[in-house]
Design goal:
Blueprint (H helix, E strand, L loop, with lengths): L9 E6 L2 H13 L4 E5 L2 H10 L5 E5 L5 H5 L6 E5 L12 E4 L5 H9 L6 H10 L5 H10 L1 H16 L5 H11 L9 H12 L2 H12 L1 E3 L2 E6 L9 H11 L4 E7 L4 E7 L7 H12 L2 E4 L3 E6 L4 H12 L2
Parallel strand pairs: 1-2, 1-3, 3-4, 4-5, 7-8
Antiparallel strand pairs: 6-7, 8-9, 9-11, 10-11
Helix pairs in contact: 1-4, 1-5, 1-8, 4-5, 5-6, 5-7, 6-7, 7-9, 10-11
Length: about 325
């Protein structure tokens, strides 16, 4: 039996959300034959990176360059483009290009010198990532708030129709790389209609409304392995938590051998959740970090209660 090897010279590793889709479309416009891997976490990115023995140029986008990732960069030509707070400005194992305050797609656009025709897509990524950037303001003014908000919703809903479908992600990014907005790509629009017609968003919000726990200024939701928010995850939690006036929101989702945690700060001037996640996982494992108001972690199965206690204490400061 012959073993298939992907010999494309360039490999992009990025996330599978809106920011990752826009990043992939920008990169495919820059280099149409790029191999793309969509991942959900830094550890998953490191695993993909460790197995790539053929690509000449590897780009890791929207993944914070931690020690595990950089370890697998040794002996390879790797460029890390990110928008998370980063303690590393230089490392001999990879070229690191980090700019905070905007989406990863916006950082990649600047790095590659993407044409202005991609500004609407980049602005969509800024919007979905909760960054009110000058570019987003310009695009919203030029195209209209209603239209651009709808474009963002269409793209955000589309990938949630089947969160494991990376073939769709690649094809959607390829079509957008030709300069199309989400509403102009039939396969994206069909996925959006599926999610819309099945009322997944209001159903997800209803689940959160029923199960969210009020702990001080923290809105917390625990999910088992079988539970689902119909693809909307943290976004539905944030929607409900904001409406109820919480200062922080936390989602604990039990997996097979760990717990995935998503943390959000919902008001200005709160604690730095990225630092909190990094500090907690440095003491308990497994990995964590992120932005001051948006962070994530993978923690051992028996560490949810210690993290909850620390989050409750943090919410009272």
């Amino acid at each position: 039996m012959l073993e298939y090897k992907d010999n494309r010279e360039t490999h992009l590793i990025t996330r599978g959300n809106v920011d990752g889709l826009v990043s992939a479309s920008i990169f495919l416009h820059h280099e149409p034959l790029t191999r793309i891997s969509f991942v959900t976490s830094p550890s998953a990115a490191a695993a993909v990176l460790s197995k790539d023995q053929t690509s000449r140029n590897i780009f890791v986008v929207d993944i914070s360059p931690d020690e595990t990732l950089l370890h697998h960069c040794e002996g390879k030509e790797v460029t890390v483009v990110d928008h998370h707070p980063c303690r590393l400005s230089k490392d001999e194992r990879a070229e690191i290009f980090v700019k905070e305050g905007k989406s990863a797609a916006s950082v990649l656009s600047s790095y590659l010198g993407a044409p202005e025709s991609f500004d609407p897509l980049v602005a969509v990524a800024d919007y979905v990532e909760y960054f009110d950037t000058p570019l987003m303001d310009e695009v919203w003014t030029e195209y209209g708030t209603k239209k651009m908000t709808r474009e963002a919703k269409i793209l955000d809903y589309s990938w949630r129709a089947n969160i494991t479908d990376d073939i769709f992600r690649y094809r959607a990014a390829l079509r957008m790389s030709q300069g199309s907005l989400p509403s102009e790509v039939p396969m994206i629009y069909r996925r959006y209609l599926t999610v819309q017609n099945e009322r997944r968003w209001p159903r997800a919000v209803s689940i959160v409304d029923e199960r969210i726990q009020h702990m001080g200024d923290l809105g917390m939701l625990e999910l088992s392995r079988r539970d689902s928010l119909l693809g909307f995850g943290t976004r539905a939690l944030v929607h409900v938590a904001k409406r109820r006036g919480f200062r922080y929101a936390a989602l604990f989702h039990r997996r097979e051998n760990h717990i995935s945690v998503s943390l959000r700060g919902l008001r200005r001037g709160g604690a730095d959740l990225g630092v909190f996640a990094e500090d907690f996982t440095s003491r308990y494992g497994v990995s964590g970090g992120g932005h001051p108001t948006s962070a994530g972690a993978r923690i051992p199965l028996d560490c949810s209660l210690p993290m909850m206690r620390e989050l409750i204490a943090l919410s009272k400061t």
